[in-house]
């Protein structure tokens, strides 16, 4: 029964009594008693009002509580909803019982459907072996309070098949005594996001064509290795290799960019297949690759791999039924021996690579300090040569060639001299190869032909007696399509009879395009110009094709002449060359004879023409005129 009703009944009963008593009291005029009754009525009334008030208050409070409960219910629902809709799952490690428990979502996220609680050990095995130590350490730090909150991205493997990325967040719960009791956390699958990031990273740090790290990634990896070395005081040696293909531009220009791209992919794969596991192979631009070989024990390891790689590149790479041949120049520098800094190491590798190129390409070079000097010198020479013509620093010298049978001047070999304002006198043996590699030889070569033909024409107009002046030609000059036309123009401009002109070529020019070279030289021969094959014996010297070449003279290289008076074997070779040349109707000239003994030996072998310091060093045109032409030189 409720309070209100009880009070009402009590009041009504009381009032009944009052009504019964009241008239009688009034009749009895017992007013004292009447007041007492009224007083107790008042007390009762107050009690009643108070009771009603309390009830009202309770009612209000009850309403409020109900409202609050509704809110709580709602927020619980919401919480559940939130938990269900977020991708995070909640987990907990009880550090006392060593048990692991998780929300249902954990199973959905991880694909791990083992029911019930698991031990920590069960859970640890999902962490990849290589990360376990680090992760364990991180959790120890969390338990010890060294970190308050721990977050990491981890690759986990829940199904034994694939590793997937997860974001783990966790914190430690402690009892009032501060002792860690639980680690609670969340886990979120981030493989899609991570894969996306990896894609973006790939674009940023990888060369898409060859699927190798790019320069940026290579450099940061190398920097990390150097830092590791510094912090750990390790004594590991690393090698940085710089590989540059020797003929990539030609392939790209002649076969097209698609072939070029295919070649680069093939080369990258060959390099990857050749290099040891753990080596970082990176295409850093064009046809250039950097390689980082870690923990080198012996330099011979690297040499062996370079040789292997060269031989693989030399075998034809098949692209669309076409065979493409290539080779590479490789520069090698060793960390920390050659340098302790990324920039220095890369510069060294570059220097060593250029050294390999300058020494004839298709080879490898280990960096050494003197190479830097050579590279700087090379750059200075190339720079100087560009202005040498305009600055009037070039001059032709002439070295006499003597006919020792008839004791007369056979002619001269024209040799270029460069007296650089900045570098002083530079030997042609040093600057001609640089002029060839830089392509400067084409313009310089035209100038040489013009100057020598002018000189020749002038001397002939003065009536001097000699057969020819020989001009040295570089292979690159002959490759120029305009060569024949230019030559004809110079001959007609300088009004020189072509029979007084000889050209000196080397065997290397036949290596490029044999048929084209034969055609060109035949056309030149038809003009009446004679052709000498220079440095015979040092190159390929294939006797079988000698007869097919449109040449008139064989020049036996100085290196054979040097030893004919001391080395019987060399003497036999020179004897053989002379015999052979005579047999196929070629003139022979021996170059670099310095002693009387050499001259006599050569004479005895039937060599009738000789050029060498024994008679004269190369001289300026004025000196030649003075010493050889005006005096109508006759051998003493
Ligand atoms: P090369 O064509 O074999 O020239 C012969 C070289 O041997 C010349 O050196 C000459 O001075 C040197 N020589 C001749 N007789 C003797 C001797 O008895 N003893 C010694 N020790 N040396 C002797 P140079 O003038 O220094 O030329 C070196 C090379 O530079 C030439 O070798 C040639 O390959 C190149 N070269 C020189 N001038 C020209 C040029 O006008 N055009 C081109 N394309 N190359 C040139
Ligand atoms: Ca020569
Ligand atoms: Ca020569």
Spatial separation of the terminal alpha carbons: 157 Å
Structural class estimated from helices and strands: alpha/beta
- The residue ranges in which pLDDT falls below 50 over 5 or more consecutive positions are none
Helix percent band: 40-55%
Tally of separate domains: 4
- CATH arch. level architecture of the largest domain: Alpha-Beta Barrel
Shape: rod-shaped
- Count of β-strands: 25
Q: Which distinct ligands sit in these coordinates?
A: ligand C2E, calcium ion
Major pleated sheet: 8 strands, mixed, barrel
Please give the radius of gyration in angstroms: 50 Å
CATH superfamily of the largest domain: EAL domain
Kindly estimate the percentage of residues that lie in beta strands according to DSSP.
Answer: 15-25%
Strand order of the largest sheet: 16-17-19-20-21-22-23-24
Here the CATH topology of the largest domain equals TIM Barrel
Tally of helical runs: 23
Arithmetic mean pLDDT: 87
List the keywords.
GGDEF_dom, 636 residues, 8-stranded mixed β-barrel, 6-stranded antiparallel beta sheet, alpha/beta, 4 domains, single chain, EAL domain-containing protein, Beta-Lactamase, rod-shaped, binds ligand C2E, Alpha-Beta Plaits, 23 helices, PAS, binds calcium ion, 22% strand, EAL_dom
